[in-house]
Amino acid sequence: MTEPQPVYLKDYQPPAFRITHTELKFDLAPSNTRVTALLHLERHPDSQPGLPLILDGEKLSLQRIAIDGQELQEGEYRLDAETLTIEDAPDRLRLETEVEIDPAANTALEGLYLSNGMFCTQCEAQGFRRITYYLDRPDVMATFSTTVIGDREQLPVLLSNGNPVERGELPNGKHFATWEDPHPKPSYLFAVVAGSLEKVEDHFTTMSGREVLLQIWVEPENLDKTEHAMRSLKAAMVWDEQTYGREYDLDLFMIVAVNDFNMGAMENKGLNIFNSAAVLTHPQTATDAAYQRVEGVVGHEYFHNWSGNRVTCRDWFQLSLKEGFTVFRDQSFSADMNSAPVKRIEDVSYLRTAQFAEDAGPTAHPVRPDHYIEISNFYTLTIYEKGSEIVRMLRNLLGWDTFRQGSDLYFARFDGQAVTIEDFVGCMAEVSGLDLTQFMLWYSQAGTPEIDAHGEYDYAKAEYHLTLRQRTPATPGQPNKQPLHIPVRIGLVGTKSGEDLALTLNGSQGKQSLSEGGVLHLREAEQTFVLSDVAEAPVPSLLRGFSAPVKLRFPYGREDLSFLLQHDVDGFNRWDAGQRLAMLALDDLIAAHRNGVEKVMDVRLTEAFRGLLTAPEEDQAVLAEMLTLPSEAYIAEQQPVVDVDAIHAARVFVKQSLAVALRDEFLAIYQANQSDAVYAPSAEQIAQRSLKNVALSYLMSIEDERGVELAQQQFEAGHNMTDVRAALTLLVHSSRSDIAEPALRAFGEKWAHDPLVMDQWFSIQVTRPQPDALDRVKYLMAHPAFSLKNPNRVRALIGAFVNQNRINFHRLDGEGYELLADVVIKLNKLNPEIAARIITPLTRWRRFDEQRQALMKAQLERIRAEDLSPNVFEIVEKALAE
Ligand code: B3K
Ligand code: ZN
Predict the structure, then answer these.
(1) Ranges for the Peptidase M1 membrane alanine aminopeptidase domain (predicted)?
(2) Residues 505 and 410 in one domain
(3) pTM
C-alpha cells in the first residue's frame, strides 16, 4: 500500500477548466442511484493551453460518457480510483457522464447517503466527487440546475439548492422535482434531500422589501421542536442586515434536520442541512445549552451565505477565511442575543481548554495550514476558534466602524469569487491604513503565544512600567517563531480608589492618551510600556476581554486577585481573576495530594466565594460562571505533567470545602432561584437556572440529605430538561445509586423513542466519576440503542467518556485506552472522519506520566498497524512522530 501523500499550499494552480453551468439528474434508489451530469466546460483563461481535463471522482461506477453528444470510446479517457482524465479535450465542451452510486453502503456520511430512510448529502469538503465526476474544488463556481427523481410514496419530498422550477409525475410510481440555483457556487455547497418529511413555514421580509419563504423540514414526530430554530433564523436574518448590511438573496431558505451527521450543520446554498441535535428543541427534551447551541449554529450557517457562499475560499488552505470570520459573526450574534460577558467567558474557556491543547500537541497547525493529507482533519478548533480570535483582534485593532468598512469592501469587491486570506486582511489594511504585515503571522505560525508580564510602580515619578515579553513555543515543523503583533488591552485599577486610572502612554511620540480601549500594541519580543501620571499604586488588569488568544502570566498575589475580583470593571477579567485565584489554591492542593500531605483549603478562596454569594452580581449569569471552578481539562492544561488523579482529588476537595463552609449561602441561592414560570430560553431564565443548578452541584458534592432531597425533587418535578438533566446528572454522579438507578431507569424508559434525549442518557452515565464507569461504557455499547454508525451516539457514549471522564479514561490498567483504540479501529472502516476526531485524547500521550505514556503509545501503535484511512493515518503519524 502506498502511503497517502500531502497536498501543499505552495503548489496551488488555477484550474485548467472552469464550469459555467452544471445540470444534474438524480434517479434515487438506496443501493443504485443513477447520477447524470451535463457539465458546460471551458478552458480557464489563466491556464496553460493544452492541459488535460482531469475530473475528480471516487467510488463511482461510470456507465456512460460523452462529449458534445458523442459517446467516448475506451482509450479516449482514462480512469483511476480518484480521477477521470481526458487528454485532448476541446477548449469548450459539454461533458455528459452517467454514474451509479450506492448511498445505502455509505457509512462515511460524505457524498450522498441515507439517514433513517431519507436521502441527504454532505459535500464539504470533497464529498461531491463521490456523487459525480467533477472539478471538485472551491475555485470552480457554476450555476446548477438539478432534477431529483424518486419514489412518490417513499420520497414525497425532493429538495435541492435554489428555487423550485418544475415538478411532476413519472411512470412506475415515481415523481420528480427540478431546482435552479442562479448563484454560481462551488460543488461543496451542493445539496440534495429526499424523504418523507414535513415542514413548518414562516416568512421574512428583507431590508429591501423582498419576501423570503422560510422552511424547516423534519420527520413528522419532530414538528413540535422547530420553533426555536425558526425564531433564531429570523433573528439571524435581521442581525446580519443590521450589523453587516447583508441581505438574503433567494426567495426560499430551507433547513433540514437529519439524525446521522458528522458535524453540526452545513451551509449548502438555500438548503442548510443540520444535525438534528443542532436544530431540534423542546423544553422537555433540550437543555438551555442545547437551545443556545441551536441559536448559534442556525446563525452560523445562515451567516455563511455571505461569508463563505457569496465570497468563498480559493482553496481549502483558506478554510479559516470563511470559518474564522463566520464563527466571529455567530459569537457576536449570540452575545447580542444573550448575556455578552457570559458568551465571552464560555468562548474563551473553550478556546483555552481545547484549542490551546490542540496548539500544544502533535496536530498543532497554523490557522492557514501549508499542507494536509486529509482536509477533513482540518475542521479544527484552530481553524474555527483561533481563526475567530484573529478576526476579533482585527476588529479590536480597527474599531468596529472601520472593521465594518473593511467587511463591506471585502463583500463588494469579491462577491461571486473564490479568494484568499490576504484578500480579506488586505481590505482591512486598506480601509484602516494600518500595516498588517506582521499581523499576518497569526495565520502562518502555529502554537499559543506566551506573554510574561512584569510591572513596576515608580512612586516618585508616578509612572507604571509594564514589560511584556512574548514567545511562541516550537510546534511540529516550526522550530523558530517570530514575534507577533498582539493587541493587549489593559487597565490600571487604583489600589486606594478601587477605580480605573486614566492611561497615558509615554512613548517615542510623546504622551498619548490610551483612554479609547487601552490597547497596547506589542510587536517586539520584549517591550516596556511606560504609563505616566499614575496617581496611585495600581493593580494591572491585563488582556481585558481576552484581547488576544495568548497565555499571559503575571505574578499576581492572592490579594491582587481578590482585589480584581471585586473591583475590575472588565467583566471578563473579573471572572478570570476568580479563576486565577482558584488555580493558585488548586496548584497547592495538587502538590499536597502528590506528596501525600494533608490538604488544607485556601481561606482566601472561601472568602472570595462568600463575597460573591452574599453580594450577588447584577448579572446572575456571570455569577454562575464565577462560581464554577476551572474544569479538570483546563487545570490539566496548566500542569507540566498531567496528574489526572491529583487534579480530580484537588478539585473535589475545593468543591466540597466550599460547600461545607458556604452551605447556607448555596442553599439560599438555590431557593432564591426556584421558579414556576413557563419555560423560555430567555437570558434571564437561563441565568436563574444555571445559578440554581451550580448551587445544587455544591450541595450535592457533599451529598448531605438536603442536597440529595432537592436533587430528587427537582428531577421528579420535571419542569424542563435543563433542570431534569442537572438533577439526574448529580444523582448519577453521586454515590447514591439507591436513588440514581431508579431515576436513570425511569428516564431511559420515558425517552426511549427520542434519540436526542437518549444521547443525554448515555452521556450522563458514562461521565460518572465512580470506578464502574468503564464497565458501563462496555455494557452500553451493547445496548440495542447504540450504534457506531451514528455520530451523535458515538460522541454521546465514547466521546463523553474519553473527554469528560478523565480519571476513568486514564485508568492505570490502560483499559480506557484500549477501549478507545478498539473503537477507532472499527470506525476507521465505517466513518474515517469521526474515527480521526474521536482519537484525539490518545494523541496527547506526551502530556502524561511515563506509565500512561507507554500505555497510550502502545494503543496508537496498535492502530497504526491497521490498514488505515488517510484520515486516521495522518493523525496517528503525527501523534507518533519523534
Ligand atoms: N462548513 C461545515 C463544515 C462541514 C465539513 C465536514 N467535513 C460546517 C460549518 O462550519 O458550518
Ligand atoms: Zn462554518
Answers:
(1) 229-440
(2) no
(3) 0.98
Q: Which three cell numbers stand for residue 215?
A: 422552511
Residue of the nearest CA to atom 5 in ligand 1?
124
Question: Helices 755-766 and 737-750 sit at what angle, rounded to 10 degrees?
Answer: 160
544's CB contacts (< 8 A; 6+ apart) are: 489, 490, 491, 518, 570, 572, 573
Comparing CA positions, the residue from 715, 608, 710 lying closest to residue 669 is 710
- Given 23, 301, 637, 833, the catalytic residue: 301
Confidence of residue 619 (pLDDT cuts 50, 70, 90): confident
User: Is residue 510 domain-resident?
Assistant: yes
- Ligand 1 binding pocket includes 267 (Cβ within 6 Å): yes
Full domain range(s) for residue 176 = 7-196
Are residue 27 and residue 126 in the same domain, yes or no?
yes
Q: How far apart are CA 232 and CA 32, in angstroms?
A: 38
- Ligand 1 centroid from CA 416, angstroms: 20
Residue at 46: amino acid letter:
D
Per-residue cell: 203: 416568512
Contacts 24+ apart (CB under 8 A), 798-801: 798/823, 798/838, 799/838, 800/762, 800/763, 800/766, 800/767, 801/766, 801/767, 801/773, 801/774, 801/777
CATH number at residue 100: 2.60.40.1730
Question: Of the candidates 532, 551, 570, which is a domain's last residue?
Answer: 551
What pLDDT score was predicted for residue 516?
Answer: 61
Phi, psi of 675 (to 5 degrees): -155, 145
Q: What is the mean pLDDT of the chain?
A: 97
3-class DSSP assignment, residue 673: coil
Residue 514 has pLDDT above 70, yes or no: yes
Residue in this structure with the C-alpha cell 448529580, named with its chain if needed: 730
| Nearest atom of ligand 1 to the alpha carbon of 376 | 7
Same domain, 399 and 467: no
- The answer to the question of residue 542 being in a domain is yes
**Does residue 616 register a pLDDT over 90?**
no
φ/ψ of 782, rounded to 5, equals -95, 0
CA distance 860 to 850: 15
User: Quick check: 430 pLDDT over 90?
Assistant: yes
From atom 6 of ligand 1, which residue's Cα is the shortest distance away? 124
Pocket-testing residue among 260, 263, 378, ligand 1, by greatest number of atoms within 8 A of Cβ: 263
Cell digits for 712?
A: 430528587
Q: Give the domain-ending residue among 162, 196, 230.
A: 196
Q: What is the mean pLDDT of residues 476-484?
A: 98
Distance, CA 301 to ligand 2 centroid (Å)?
6
Position 318 in a domain: yes
Judge whether 258 lies within some domain. no
- CB distance 434 to 397 below 8 Å: yes
Is residue 374 within 6 Å of ligand 1 at its C-beta? no
Residues 379 and 506 in one domain: no
The protein residue whose alpha carbon is closest to atom 7 in ligand 1 is 376
CA distance 653 to 199: 51
Q: Is 221 a catalytic residue?
A: no
Q: Is the CB of 135 under 6 A from ligand 1?
A: no
Residue in 606, 619, 734 with CA at minimum distance from that of residue 662 = 606
pLDDT above 90: residue 512: no
* pLDDT above 70: residue 163: yes
Is the pLDDT confidence value at 515 over 70? no
Amino acid occupying residue 394: L
Counting every residue, how long is the chain?
882
Residue 751 phi, psi dihedral angles, 5° rounding: -115, 15
Q: Ligand 1, residues 122, 267, 316: which to mutate, most atoms within 8 A of Cβ? A: 267
Amino acid at 290: A
Q: How far is 683 from 679, CA to CA, in rounded Å? A: 12
The confidence score (pLDDT) of residue 1 equals 59
Please identify, by atom number, the ligand 1 atom nearest to the C-alpha of residue 304: 11
Atom of ligand 1 minimally distant from the CA of 308: 1
